[in-house]
Amino acid sequence: MARFGIDTGRAVGVTVTELRRFARDLGRDHELAAALWASSVHEARLLASLVDEPDMVSEAQMEAWVADLDSWDVCDGVCGNLFDRTPFALDKAVEWSSREPEFEKRAAFALMASAAVHRKDLPDAAFASLLPVIRAQATDERNYVKKAVSWALRQIGKRSSGLNPLAIRTAERIERIDSRAARWVARDALRELRSDAVQARLRKS
Which end of the chain, N or C, is less packed with Cβ atoms under 10 Å? Predict the structure, then answer.
């Protein structure tokens, strides 16, 4: 875990595979999720994201949990297992995108990326509206942030044939920004968005 940049100060070494099995056995339980999160144990917080009930998650809970984030994997797990299923997902992503704390800002873009994959109920226009936010925040030099910015841009651009050219144009505009981080984000995203594999899949969809 430490080798992958994960804070192990409150970790016990349970694998994500094991946590997913525990979650299947436990089922959905909002109160249990709250207790797991309150324990501050690394894996317990990941498990909380797997057993909580999205319909019972409030904006206040999202704010409390995002303020507690101290590791990229819990950040991504909470966003991809739980927060992206809430009605507040995209609004919170936009709100958090301008936050200063590293993992709160990463959460914004992890949430965009996860929602682009999971939220088939949302129209493409909802994700197109996020592209200016991505462009505006592409200059953050912090590794965990810039990787999440690229991730969000790539997932939105892979969502549909309509969004792909919009994401590519956004990446091209980002590439012209006088910022090393922005150039990295743009080139990382364009490499995948223009790839033959992605273009072929979009033509079939």
Answer: C
